[in-house]
Design brief:
about 325 residues; 4 helices; 39 strands; nine-stranded parallel β-sheet
């Protein structure tokens, strides 16, 4: 997709400093910029690359004052980092499949209900009595079971599996090989030492504007629902167990695991490989650093926690200063 500096400035509500007819067809990091590429400068530690960058256009903040000559055309915007995110979203939207399409090799039924402009790729399966909202894209080899409700503007990438009875809101993105609605890990020990499976008859309810990473699994509830709130962002390879509830706008990085029946508050941030035990409550606005382990309730809102088991970050750093020297001779 080709864009000129003038078009970019109009779309991003910025101003052009240089050649307004300069064109770009690709994105690049500022340290790798070449002719035909657009870069952005938002972090002061990368300023040296502004003066050596060979890109055709650089997005910069309006208050940026260069100390040397800049050869690239600059498009000045209020916030260069936010602007490039908006631009990436715009370009991606132009590349996505859109418009009504039902592959001859897809499988669906008279009782399946599609909204307007739904795309269904080859070898996808959409079950009996399932409803799919307007402008949703279902790529090749997606399975969506019976009695599901899928909202508007969703994207299901190849290999996604949605078990029967799931409820998914509007503008949800589910990446390849994610599984929504598998049975939770529920088993009862028997006197002879074997285990008896607990049947899971609940479902998963996912709110609006959620993104679920590749190979992530969200288990169905034993009874009632596993609930993912609006605006939640879940990275790749995460595990959300049965009956978990995640509050609005919480984000979690790769390999986070949450055990059954735990309630996560709103606006929480979890780093990679965070592990949270079952039947706990995590307060709103909690931040847990990478590899943090949670074994008890977190009742105070707004804490930053580190370690395993987690403790407040400042306490952890004081402790770390001591134990990192404990082996010194």
């Amino acid at each position: 997709m080709e864009l000129t500096a003038k078009q970019l400035a109009q779309y991003l509500k910025g101003t052009v400093e240089g050649d307004e007819n300069a064109t770009v067809t690709k994105f690049a990091k500022i340290e790798h910029g070449k002719p035909g590429a657009i870069c952005f400068f938002a972090n002061p530690k990368y300023e040296q690359f502004v003066y050596t960058c060979k890109a055709s256009i650089i997005l910069v903040n309006k208050d940026f004052q260069p100390k040397e000559t800049v050869s690239a055309t600059m498009v000045r915007v209020d916030n260069a980092y936010a602007a490039v995110a908006e631009l990436l979203k715009f370009v991606a939207s132009k590349k996505r499949k859109s418009g009504r399409h039902r592959s001859w090799h897809a499988r669906y039924f008279w009782t399946t209900r599609f909204g307007k402009r739904v795309h269904v790729g080859a070898h996808a399966y959409v079950g009996h009595h399932t409803t799919v909202g307007d402008d949703t894209v279902i790529y090749e080899h997606v399975y969506i079971g019976d009695d599901c409700t899928i909202g508007k503007g969703c994207i299901f990438y190849p290999g996604v599996r949605v078990y029967p009875g799931m409820v998914i809101g509007d503008n949800v993105i589910v990446h390849s090989n994610a599984v929504i609605g598998a049975d939770g890990f529920g088993n009862v020990p028997k006197p002879d030492g074997t285990w008896e499976k607990i049947e899971h008859l609940g479902n998963v309810i996912i709110g609006n504007d959620v993104e679920i990473g590749a190979c992530t699994t969200i288990d169905r509830a034993e009874m009632e629902s596993t609930i993912i709130g609006n605006g939640v962002k879940i990275d790749n390879l995460c595990q959300i167990a049965h009956n978990v509830q995640i509050g609005d706008n919480t984000v979690m990085a790769a390999q986070t695991g949450i055990a059954g029946s735990t309630k996560i508050g709103r606006n929480c941030i979890f780093g990679g490989q965070v592990g949270i035990a079952g039947h706990l409550t995590i307060a709103d606005n909690t931040t847990i650093g990478a590899q943090g382990g949670v074994i008890g309730n977190i009742r105070k809102s707004g804490q930053v926690l580190l370690g395993s088991p987690v403790i407040p970050a400042r306490q952890y750093m004081r402790s770390y200063a001591i134990f990192k020297r404990s082996g010194e001779e």
